[in-house]
TrEMBL record:
Family: Belongs to the class A bacterial acid phosphatase family.
Span of domain Phosphatidic acid phosphatase type 2/haloperoxidase: 106-214
Annotated organism of origin: Collimonas fungivorans (strain Ter331)
Any one GO CC term of the record: outer membrane-bounded periplasmic space
Domain of life according to the entry: Bacteria
UniProt keywords, alphabetically: Hydrolase, Signal
EC class of the enzyme, as a word: hydrolase
Protein name (Swiss-Prot/TrEMBL): Acid phosphatase
SUPFAM superfamilies, A to Z: Acid phosphatase/Vanadium-dependent haloperoxidase
InterPro entries linked: Acid_Pase_classA_bac, PAP2/HPO, PAP2/HPO_sf
UniProt EC number: 3.1.3.2
Catalytically driven reaction(s): a phosphate monoester + H2O = an alcohol + phosphate
Length: 244
């Protein structure tokens, strides 16, 4: 009578072990080009405005004004932009801009996005600026909530960083790409999860990370391969600037 029970118990243990192992295999290990050890944001950025400062109150008023004016289309756009990846630029890049056609490009930009988190998350924990919806119950967010520090905005950092790198690959679309990066960042205010100063310092941080990455050989090697693949898929031909 005990044998079937033992068999079931062993089978259950094996199943749990298999699921746990599968989950660990599926979990993606981050592989940034650069980390907070190489960029000191405390020396680069001012501290965030104090909670009771006139600046924070003015920024809160902006959030509430946008909250009152936001349309369903604005809400949907801000929710879609809550995803941190390069494919949010597809509406600028065109129908051929797809992950399955750009494996090298996709791998490269995942490392770019990983670099944002590896730099910014450390300083969010240092400054610990409360999110607007934590500071004021009048703020009604429409995007996924985060309890991490608000300053600087990781999304604004990532959007700016991605925009700069992508526009360096396709300078023909630089204006449109950077406009999309600005919208991507601003949607964090519309979504109710960031103040204006979080966004502005995120743009500064993204610009600094982009500049620092361009000094690294590993980044430049991967950039060149990803750029070649992208321009080939988009049928743009060689970048004229490469021959100058």
């Amino acid at each position: 009578m005990k044998v079937p029970f033992m068999r079931k118990l062993i089978a259950s243990i094996l199943l749990v072990s298999f699921v746990a192992c599968s989950a660990s295999v599926q979990a993606r290990e981050e592989n940034p080009f650069i980390t907070s050890k190489e960029i000191d944001l405390v020396k680069l950025l001012p501290p965030p405005p104090a909670n009771d400062s006139p600046q924070t109150k003015a920024e809160l008023s902006e959030i509430l004004a946008l909250q009152a004016a936001r349309t369903p289309a604005m809400v949907a756009r801000s929710q879609a932009d809550a995803t941190e990846d390069i494919w949010r630029f597809a509406d600028v890049m065109g129908v051929k801009f797809k992950r399955d056609q750009l494996p090298l490009f996709a791998q490269f930009f995942q490392r770019v996005v990983d670099s944002e988190g590896a730099v910014v998350d450390t300083y969010k924990d240092i400054w610990k600026r409360p999110r607007p919806f934590i500071y004021s119950e009048l703020v009604k967010p429409v995007v996924k909530l985060s309890r991490s520090g608000a300053y600087p905005s990781g999304h604004a950092t990532a959007g700016t960083l991605m925009g700069i790198v992508l526009s360096n690959m396709v300078p023909e679309k630089r204006a449109e790409i950077m406009a999309r990066a600005a919208e991507y960042a601003n949607n964090r205010i519309i979504g109710g999860v960031h103040y204006r100063s979080d966004i502005e310092t995120g743009r500064i941080t993204g610009t600094v990370i982009a500049a620092r990455l361009q000094t690294r050989d590993d980044f430049n090697t991967a950039f060149d391969a990803a750029k070649k693949e992208l321009r080939g898929v988009l049928e743009l031909g060689p970048d004229p600037a490469d021959s100058m």
